[in-house]
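Appendix B, example 12.
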Amino acid sequence: GGVKIALVGGAECLRKFHLSGFYSLMILDGAPCRPFDATRAGLNLGEGASYLILENEEDALKRGAHIYGYIAGYGNTCDAHHQTASSPDGEGAYLAMKQALQMANITPEQVDYINAHGTGTPNNDLSESAAIRRLFSEKVPFISSTKAFTGHTTSASGSIEAAICLLCMQNDIIPANLNWSSTDDALILPVVHNVQHELQCVLCNSFGFGGNDSSLVLTKIGVSDLSSNHSNVAISYSPIYDGDSIDYKQFMSPIEARRMTKQLRQTLAAALSALHDANIIPDAIICATRYGCMANSMVFLNEMLSTNEDGLKPTRFIQSTHNTMAGLLAIKQQNKGYNITYSNGKHSWNDALLDATMQMQLGLIRSALVIAFDEYVEEWGNILQKVGLQSCDIAKAQLLTLEN
């Protein structure tokens, strides 16, 4: 209900930093990736972009738009297991799919096709298979991963695969899971050839670093307006906790602290201090950052340029991602709820607060921890200064709760 039309999507380009990072994690496959195959050995990286227009049905029909499909529901959760690996039981993936179906008021039996995250890594495919079998115990629908067509386009993969799902519904076709040849009893069996089949309801999975899990339910025919439950609510705001004024040693061991940059330590301390004082585990963790974890990014980049790739430290790459803080806090708190990071320059903090408010207005959460973090890095600061922008150290947290 906030806007009438929105352009949504993602884009990703391949670069040396990207390739070196995944190489350091030892999850790249030199051969074509084989999602859900017994011989799977890792992912192939890809690049691309996809954008969709979202609007209410009435306006779309008025302007004569071709409607490709409807968003019937979504789920966003955190696996809260590891910064890169999925949990063996796929708890986060299971919760995301379950939430999406519940919002759409659709039973598992009504799902015709699942576009799996299916990266081709040993860990992901095993975890996602466990989650799918758990949720679809009575009848597992047709399943395939399309990453063997595109490669794993990381930041763009969710939007690209949503577009693929919409095109599949338009053409009533289930795309093949390429390169599959051998069965593993622990894994789901994918569709290995294109199949003509009527599709009314499709589930699209996208999972990522930090245990972030998202699922979309897309349908061919109209659904009730997702904003229909939107209402005004009374929200309480805690004081803003400033990480620079908090002793992080109260909240983490020396071993934990040594693995983090100063900014990560202070931000985590601010968040944990807010939760300690409120004595609450929030329903949502929502982060805001202008530029992400720049210190680790710069260290990894310098190591990449000055050393052999075999000497790269994967922790640096893992902690260079924008959603590092959201994942770290979820893992420490074992918080499997709504988990998202905004990176929209100076607007990020307002975006995070707006999202928390909207989730409360929709009745999906009752509390949210909103966190802001950034750090000054000289090399990056010099670049920003040339274009009239500034980088600075920020580590703060604020708790939002619904008032009774």
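The first strand starts at residue 5 and ends at 12. DSSP finds 13 helices and 15 strands in the chain.
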